[in-house]
Design a protein that fits this description.
By secondary structure, the protein is mainly α. The chain has helices at about 5-15, 20-35, 35-50, 50-65, 70-90, 105-110, 115-130, 135-170, 175-200.
Length: about 200
């Protein structure tokens, strides 16, 4: 095939399954609201990556060659947004009464377009796992399908993990520390992606 599907699927699983801004958001949302109430948010996060894949596949990378400053600016704006979300997570408290409104589909939809790790992962898919001469549609559709399948499995696992953690700490003195740890991990992953990209 023109896209190395098996190799890319392994790469995608490693990337989607490891800590990053999106997974920290899923973990925190699962901890705050539980998997069932977080499912619209989970669906939005999964489908939000498609909002990055298709424009990249159909030529957005050409803009990076002609106006690289646009991507540098977007990278830091995105990082700032994710860090702001982390601050909100740090000050959340786990929901024990069920009255709070969980973030919905639209809130999840914007996570990956503002996630520098997602952009790096998708760019690598097109540059490292796609054979020269592959049509834009074939490459984009294949990468989109593989990533969506991987996300459909792994995103709910992260969210469920948050729910299970919350059951043991909600209402205890450890709750505050958990939320700060989640926020710190989110910031750390954003900074890692930024500086790894700069060094690379």
């Amino acid at each position: 095939m023109s896209v190395a599907v098996t190799s890319f699927a392994i790469f995608a699983a490693a990337q989607v399954g490891t800590p990053g801004p999106a997974n920290m958001a899923l973990l925190a949302t699962g901890a705050r609201y539980g998997l069932r109430r977080a499912l619209p948010f989970v669906a939005g996060v999964a489908l939000g990556k498609q909002l990055v894949i298709w424009p990249v596949g159909f030529g957005l990378m050409q803009l990076a060659d002609t106006a690289p400053w646009v991507f540098v600016a977007l990278k830091y704006i995105s990082a700032g947004y994710i860090i702001w979300l982390a601050w909100r997570v740090a000050n959340m408290r786990l929901n024990t009464g069920g009255e709070a409104t969980a973030p919905g589909f639209v809130a999840g939809l914007v996570v990956h377009p503002l996630n520098p790790k997602a952009w790096a992962m998708i760019t690598a898919g097109f540059t490292a796992f796609t054979a020269p001469g592959t049509s834009s549609f074939e490459a984009t559709a294949t990468i989109a399908a593989v990533l969506l399948a991987v996300q459909a499995v792994l995103h709910p696992i992260w969210t469920y993990g948050g729910q299970q953690i919350a059951r043991s700490v909600a209402g205890t003195s450890r709750e505050r520390y958990l939320m700060w740890v989640l926020a710190t991990l989110t910031v750390a992953t954003v900074l890692f992606v930024l500086f790894a990209g700069a060094l690379g």
